[in-house]
Amino acid sequence: MAKFFDIFKKKKKENIDEENIDEIIDEEINEEAVYEEIDVVKDEIVENEEIEKARDSVIQEDDLMEQEDLEEKVDFFTKLKQGLAKTRKGMTDKIDNILKSYGKIDEELFDELEEILITSDVGVETTMEIIDNLKSKVKENKIKDPTDVKKYLKEEIKCTLNKLDVDRNLNIEPSPAIILVVGVNGVGKTTTIGKMACNLRKDGKKVLIAAGDTFRAAAIEQLEEWANRANVDIVAHSEGSDPAAVIYDGIQAAKARKCDVLICDTAGRLHNKKNLMNELNKIFRVVEKEYPEATKEVLLVVDATTGQNAILQAKVFKEVCDITGIVLTKLDGTAKGGVVIALQSELNVPVKLVGVGEGIDDLQNFETESFVEAII
Ligand SMILES: Nc1nc2c(ncn2[C@@H]2O[C@H](COP(=O)(O)OP(=O)(O)OP(=O)(O)O)[C@@H](O)[C@H]2O)c(=O)[nH]1
Ligand SMILES: [Mg+2]
User: Which residues have CB less than 5 Å away from ligand 2 (the ion)?
Assistant: First the structure.
């Protein structure tokens, strides 16, 4: 650019020496135009440089976000795998050993696989179905090597889990939404609410918790602690007060504070089905009357370490209320993670979240693909 200016300056001097006024005038007019053009070019260069700089920073930001997404995904999968370590040991290692120990594929091999699935809490009916389909696939594809059976077994399990063609995302759109968390005592309701509140807040949602378990004082304090950890607000009454009244107040507060999601804890220790039904019905009536515009999610929390009992509980709750999703907690504490498969195939309710530890980050969305890859 400097060279360009020098040529102009030189040319101007030469013209004055020749004392050709017209030419000088013409030249000056041209010169002015050229200077103007140069200014435009300079502006364009600056503009282009700025655009390039902005583009570079966007690209860098995108790269960073992609990198973060990838890291989060890797982290998510590692955590899931760690959480499912016991199940992997109980299921995968056994399956691998059986497949390696057989020279050919026969009826006995299928019997052994069947036993491993049943003892991992996949459930008798579901296991039979998986093994029958596996037999047909092995025959169809003329599989001869027992170690090749694993790939087909994985596919069959994925197929069983995917049979339920539903959205596994929490039912919280459009806002406002209300999530009722139900389940028997000790399964992990309060812990799940804390973890879920934290995840939703991180997703940019304004979250409020209602302490609907008024059965014991400690339950309210425990939930308050989780609300603090998750950095969200909580509405609570004192011990022994009416749970439906707490939910009522929670709804009014959620409306006044323009919350996106209201998460309600409930008491689990109701001794019989009639009691449970009465208590939950009262809460549901309050929700219907006071918050008809809210998107509803009814999450049943079950404890994976209780195995077949978790399925029984789910069946009872399904009769009492409209469960829209299941949270399976304590998957990290059991070798029988196969219960996920039984739950879905026997109840036709999607497992939406899984608990893989006691920490605030230990609640994950359930994804068929990563789950099956983590256990088998
Ligand atoms: N390892 C493990 N522990 C969990 C998980 N979820 C909950 N827990 C533990 O299970 C215990 C019971 O959890 P709570 O959240 O109090 O269960 P709850 O259903 O609210 O129980 P009640 O209020 O008594 O009905 C606590 O010690 C939790 O730390 C999980 O995913 N993994
Ligand atoms: Mg609780």
Answer: 189-190, 219
Nearest to 124 by CA among 290, 304, 338: 338
Q: Is the CB of 303 under 6 A from ligand 1?
A: no
Residue 370, CA atoms < 13 Å, CB-side half-sphere: 18
Condensed to tens digits (0 to 9), the pLDDT of residues 150-175 reads 999 999 999 999 988 888 999 999 99
Say which residue, 189 or 88, is predicted with more confidence: 189
232 or 13, which is more confident: 232
Nearest CA to ligand 1 atom 21: 186
Distance 265 CA to ligand 2 centre (A): 7
Q: How many other CB atoms are found less than 10 A from the CB of residue 184?
A: 21
Residue 46 has a CB neighbour count (10 Å cut-off) of 10
Write down the pTM of the prediction: 0.79
Residue 65 has pLDDT above 70, yes or no: no
What would the pLDDT profile of 249-294 be if each residue is shown by its tens digit?
A: 999 999 999 999 999 999 876 667 788 888 889 999 999 999 999 9
Pairing of the two strands 261-264 and 295-303 = unpaired
Ligand 1 contact, 332 CB (< 6 A): yes
What's the CA-to-centroid distance between 330 and ligand 1, angstroms? 8
In testing the pocket of ligand 1, which one of 181, 299, 358, 364 has its CB within 8 Å of the most ligand atoms? 358
CB of 359 within 6 A of ligand 1: the answer is: no
Does position 98 have pLDDT exceeding 50, yes or no?
A: yes
Q: How far is CA 203 from the centre of its chain?
A: 10
> Given 3-state DSSP classes, what are the helix, strand and coil percentages for the chain, each rounded to the nearest 5?
65, 10, 25
Torsion angle of the four alpha carbons 163, 169, 170, 173, in this order, in degrees rounded to the nearest 10: -120
Distance 187 CA to ligand 1 centre (A): 5
DSSP per-residue string spanning 289-331:
HH-TTSEEEEEEEEEGGGTHHHHHHHHHHHHHS---EEEEE-G
Query: What are the tokens at 108?
Result: 């006995």
